[in-house]
Design goal:
Blueprint: H1 2-8, H2 12-29, H3 34-40, H4 46-57
Helix pairs in contact: 2-4, 3-4
Length: about 60
């Protein structure tokens, strides 16, 4: 894990969470529902997903048109 952090610049967990949120943002942009996306990218609840999304992107997840 130390080598991963040295090479990538973040912990494996933070990297994975960031990647999941990027995938989620793409799904939302295509019109998917927040609750469905939260499940698809591995969050236990839509609320936990929404908080993580806000921390990463600075706005709340919503269906984008």
């Amino acid at each position: 894990m130390a080598m991963f952090r040295d090479v990538v610049g973040t912990t494996p967990q933070a990297y994975l969470t960031g990647w999941r949120l990027i995938l989620a943002r793409r799904k939302l942009a295509r019109g998917a529902k927040v609750k469905a996306v939260a499940r698809q990218v591995g969050f236990g609840s839509a609320a936990a997903f929404s908080r993580a999304f806000f921390r990463k992107f600075g706005d709340w997840p919503s269906v984008r048109s």
